[in-house]
Amino acid sequence: MSTFHATVTPPWDERAWRDVARAAWRAGIAPDQLTWDGDGQASLLAGVDVLAQAPVRLAPHVPPDFLALAGSVLCHRDAQRHGLLYRLLWRIASGERALLERETDADVRRAGELAKAVGRDSHKMKAFVRFREVPGERDAFVAWFEPEHFIVDRVAPFFARRFAGMRWAILTPYRSAFWDGSALGFGGGATRGDAPADDAQDALWRTYYANIFNPARLNPRMMTQEMPQKYWKNLPEARLLPTLLAEAGARVQAMADREAEAPRRRIPERVVEPLPRAEGLPALRAAARECRRCELWQPATQTVFGEGPSSARIMIVGEQPGDAEDLSGRPFVGPAGQLFDRALATHGIDRARLYLTNAVKHFRFEQRGKRRLHRNPAVSHMQACRPWLEREIATVKPRIIVCLGATAARAVFGAGFKLMEQRATWMRLDDGTRAFATVHPSWVLRQASGEARDTAYQSFVDDLALLAELADAAQDASS
Ligand code: URA
User: Fold this and answer.
1) Is the pTM of this model over 0.85?
2) Residue 310 half-sphere exposure, CB side, CA atoms within 13 Å?
3) What is the whole-number distance in angstroms between the Cα of residue 244 and the centre of ligand 1?
4) Cα 340 to ligand 1 centre (Å)
5) Domain boundaries in the chain?
6) Ligand 1: centre distance to CA 322 (Å)
7) With helix as H, strand as E and coil as C, how does 426-468 read?
8) Does domain 281-478 have CATH number 3.40.470.10?
9) Who lines ligand 1 at CB under 6 A?
10) Which residues of the chain are modeled with pLDDT < 50?
């Protein structure tokens, strides 16, 4: 019979549970003497509060993987989870050090199931939260989501990293998370009516979804597994599903008819090569010379890899090499590069101390007679090239990254980045690196000559003043 009771507030909080569990262990209270209150109703529980007990022994020692498991399990709604974790803690601290490796143990198995369910729910939240703009407010977004478990505190940092540059709130029935552009906050639950209804972005999202929907690959069972129906009501694209599903048969038939008319040609499966294991900039550069991860290597003269000292504290990321870069094999040597040099010089920044690279490392162009006209890289080119950029960042470890233009900004900050709204604003990347984006120097060059170009140039120089503020300190560190 239990003589003691314990309350964890809030019931998903790892630290709160640890404090109580540690006090119970130190007071020598065995798992079967203890009743856990999973819902904050302590007054209904009989017995003596665990926290009032005097310690009779030292704090328990448990391995870090137990604490990681506990962090997940606590987010589950199962009312028995606190007691289950305490039983595990008790057994591990009492000498069963390898307990978590025994997958056949009933407690270990149950904890694993709960952790997995929390993992799945967290994944769904990352995939199915849809922000809607708050009417009348600039850059403020609210999303409504109904998680199965207590996962808001666990998943909110992901959204803070992903949408660092906007103000947002995620409302759920039991808890809300807020991000004001610099700090995360949490509040009570809300109702669906507290979030704005449909907006223009929903319509855009639906158009996109209808366009990418491939009826021939329709697998309703997989679809409901991956996107359970309970989330559909909050997804703008889900409204299209009944129509798209109903039309799928006819559309597949139409596709099959079209294929029957087309000449039969076997399209080889596209295989994206993994990156080689090269370490250090010279080895990475050599490996990138052979890159075939997308088709751009073929018409291009060569790979244009980044250049600059490996100790550089500032990394500049551009879009892709242009004609001059393609021929010379060096980034930012053509007209855009010269304009960039001039803008750097106004702030007294020495280009030789920067590491300059591009989001895409082959020139994409269209041949018109003898001229090679620049074409914007596609998302697939950026994605294929991204691992190279990641390796450059991991190798150089810059303190500051400056993105020139939207392609570079999206490669660094993610697809949702809006250059003209977010330019010249400091952000923090996941690893703490400071970064901001500004326009691309070739955008300045594309402005009509005269006042428009002068203004564009001046705004570019002004944006780089952000860099100038920190450049001295960052450059000193590299000298
Ligand atoms: N534009 C870029 O983005 N990069 C270069 O290297 C040259 C022009």
Assistant:
1) no
2) 11
3) 42
4) 10
5) 4-122, 129-194, 200-243, 281-478
6) 6
7) CEECCCCCEEEEECCHHHHHHCCCCHHHHHHHHHHHHHHHHHH
8) yes
9) 318-322, 325, 331-332, 334, 336-337, 358, 442
10) 259-271, 476-479
